Amino acid sequence: MTVQTLPIRRPDDWHLHLRDADLLRAVLPASARQFGRAIVMPNLKPPVTTAEAAMAYRECILGVLPPGSEFTPLMTCYLCDTTDPADIRAGFDAGAFVAAKLYPAGATTHSEYGVTSIDRIAGVLAVMQDIGMPLLIHGESTDPAVDVFDREAVFLHATLRPLLARYPRLKVVLEHITTAEAADFVMRDPSGRLAATITPQHLMFNRNAMFAGGIRPHHYCLPVLKRERHRLALRHAATSGSPAFFLGTDSAPHDTGAKESACGCAGIFSAPVALQAYVTVFDEEQALDRFEAFASDNGARFYGMPPNQQTITLHRSPTHVSGQIDLPDGRRIRPFLFGETLPWTLAWPDDDLDRIAS
Ligand code: NCD
Ligand code: ZN
After folding, report:
1. pLDDT, tens only, 5-62
2. CATH value of 13-309 in 3.40.50.280, 3.40.50.720, 3.20.20.140, 3.30.390.50
3. Which residue CA neighbors atom 6 of ligand 1 most closely?
């Protein structure tokens, strides 16, 4: 019998860009409506590189949360060559941040202050291993000679494998994986200390989507979409039941002017329709029975956090994706799948609808 309603434990987003100022205020309600908690990425300008900055950023987020929302931002530290291991330890102990993000310098949006060589952060990684603080990795080679479609696969062997060998107890999340090689690498790791997030766009589209009838900046993100065989491998990994894979949208809002430009920036704003998109994939794969583990259980378990207690319900009923977000200064944010219709809707318990202002 076709499943019509799917009640699940409230999910979390283990990879989210919330930005700051007006953009934060504009995009936060979308994530707060869908998710209980989110790992908030630190690639602001300037980046969030200290415990003090992370606490201040959290206050900004909490200050603009819709009234009644119980959304919890989980803060991260942007690692630089100069990150102080003592600040990492103290910040983690104090709850200022729960993880640290490794952006290889030059790999993606706002990564120019990132790490130029793993050796430079050896002291930081030793502390993180010691205290059980997860390292979140943007896993792409920054060697300009490496083809853009091969950067993730090269990173696995050139950087990740030696890093894991050097820090055998370090917890690592390989963020937004995009290739069969990365899925396989994570699947084969027997230790339980390596996991991966997967975005909705990498489950739904292959690289043809960027060039369908012309260049499509709203399908451009980093790591870039790959060939169909990679998309199929990611769908297999996400729906496999393996606890090493969990939901991380990588929702990354940019205004349409910055995306529709001669040098359009990378990032897809998926937060408003993330769960409707993910559940569509699980439905197509006939794996609805595995959706709750991917969306709501695996990430919390990996991070050592209690599962959410609330329930949300997805209904087999169409969602038309129409809402663009207008900022006070005239900028406009276009959501993932704008103009399209998804077969699933997200409903809230009545009491939440009353409490959360739209
Ligand atoms: C992200 C952003 O815009 O901050 N962009 C993206 O394409 N994913 C950065 C990132 O996660 O790589
Ligand atoms: Zn990201």
Report:
1. 999 999 999 999 999 999 999 999 999 999 999 999 999 999 999 999 999 999 999 9
2. 3.20.20.140
3. 267
* Edge-to-edge strand ranges of the sheet holding 135-137: 13-16, 37-40, 72-78, 99-102, 135-137, 172-174, 194-198, 245-247
Quote the CA–CA distance of 222 and 149 in Å, as a whole number: 10
- pLDDT, one tens digit per residue, over 211-228 is 999 999 999 999 999 999
- Strand 345-347's sheet: what is its strand order? 5-9, 311-315, 345-347
Domain boundaries, the chain: 13-309
pLDDT given for residue 348 in this prediction = 65
Beta bridge partners of 109: none
From 12, 13, 87, 250, active-site residue: 250
| SS3 at position 316 | coil
Q: Is 222 exposed, middle or buried (0-12, 13-18, 19+ CB in 10 A)?
A: buried
DSSP 8-state code for residue 265: P
Ligand 1 atom closest to the Cα of residue 103 is 12
117/182 Cα distance (integer angstroms) = 21
Query: Which numbered ligand comes closest to the C-alpha of 14?
Result: 2
Checking DSSP bridges between strand 345-347 and strand 311-315, what pairing results, if any? antiparallel
Q: Whose CA is nearest to atom 9 of ligand 1?
A: 109
Ligand nearest 225 Cα, by number?
A: 1
Catalytic site includes residue 81: no
What separation in angstroms does the CA of 98 have from each of 69, 93, 267, 298? 21, 9, 24, 16
Alpha helices in 270-349 (DSSP H): 274-284, 291-292, 298-303
